[in-house]
Amino acid sequence: MTDSRAASGPATRRLLTLAGLLLVALNLRPALTSVSPVLTRIGHDLGLASAGQGVLTTLPVLCLGLAAPLAPRLARRIGPERAVLAVLIVLAFALIVRPYTATAGLFLGTAVAGGAIGVMGVLLPGLVKRDFPNSIGLMTGLYTMALNLGASLAAGATEPLRLAFGDDWRAALAFWLAPAVIAAVAWIAQMHAVAKPRTGTGGPKRLYRDPLAWQVTAFMGLQSSLAYIVFGWLPTILADRGMAPVTAGLALSISILVQVASALVAPAIGARMRDQRAVLCVVLATTLAGLAGCLYAPIASIWLWIVVLGLGQGGSFSMALTLLALRAPDAETASELSGMAQGVGYVTAAFGPLAVGLIHQFFGSWSAIGGLLGVIGLAAMAAALGAGRDRQVVAS
């Protein structure tokens, strides 16, 4: 379904809509990336071993996938704008509750936050396609840029916040309530200021029988698995290799911040090409090179590999989102494909961080996870060779 207001509406309307979308996107990762810089401290205070810490990093990713299929139903029931606002409020509640309700509350709040992010992650690409139908590449890049910025800020600032709050990781985690509240206020403002178009309520598509839809889903899930392994474990890995905790958190922050560049460039190149397989393979190979450098290269060269990793992962994620639009013949099918790819994909991705925790606990070494990362990366490349072809999924 198209919307003429993006092309002919006043500039203020477009700016309000853009601001609302970007502020919401800013909140799609801090609940996840704020945990890893203080993960060791959390484990020490709550008595969580590597396996327990692995569950904590896995839980939100699993809930991202489990909650994603709820997004289309919620949007049909109350409308996509109200659905985003409702889920933002749920996210804010989870962020303030989880640090202060002991171990059970930490896990439950993290799960709820992951579910809320999963719902918004499905809703926002549909709103982008509906409200900016002639600027999909640019808006996907800006959306991904805001998402990466939020992830980077949380990764880099959480450990300094812990120190600023008197060695209190709970207050540092609770701090990320603030961006959610700001986004909710801005979202309410743009809901009142901008007249929303009516949206269709078409039924589900038969995507689960389409091999191309499964290839897109596999690529989304496998590249996400690598991303959430980095979000959940990179600061701990680098700290164990000799970095100070604050510096290790800063390394993750820089890696995510670097993603902004490739998140803008990769879709701009890929969307103009008839076939995206070459772009997908390049960004995945770059990701694997960065991961190998972080694990095995001399610690003195780690900043080079941090940048390489960021460039690879920024391009991988933005291309995964771009495929949702390129492989769908219309906006409604794109929304269904988004729900499938993020729902099934994130459930698959959740096992990556968990497997890292289990492997480390069993072998007692981070070097042992290199094989896991290689297998995931090669599987993602195989999926990319199918998903990158110049074809579209069957709409019905």
TrEMBL record:
Listed transmembrane segments: 49-71, 83-100, 106-124, 136-157, 169-191, 212-234, 246-266, 278-299, 305-326, 338-360, 366-387
CDD domains: MFS_NIMT_CynX_like
Gene Ontology MF terms: transmembrane transporter activity
Protein keywords: Membrane, Transmembrane, Transmembrane helix
Gene3D superfamilies: MFS general substrate transporter like domains
Residue ranges occupied by any Major facilitator superfamily (MFS) profile domain in the UniProt entry: 209-396
InterPro entries, per database record: MFS, MFS_Cyanate_Porter, MFS_dom, MFS_trans_sf
PANTHER family: 2-NITROIMIDAZOLE TRANSPORTER, PTHR23523
Annotated protein name in UniProt: Major facilitator superfamily transporter
Higher taxonomy: Bacteria, Pseudomonadati, Pseudomonadota, Gammaproteobacteria, Salinisphaerales
